[in-house]
Amino acid sequence: MQTWITLVLHNLQRERELLINNTTLRAHLHKKHTFHRQKSLQQKEEEEQSFSSLQKFDDTAAVQKAASWLSKNLMML
Question: How many domains does the chain have?
Answer without folding.
Answer: 1
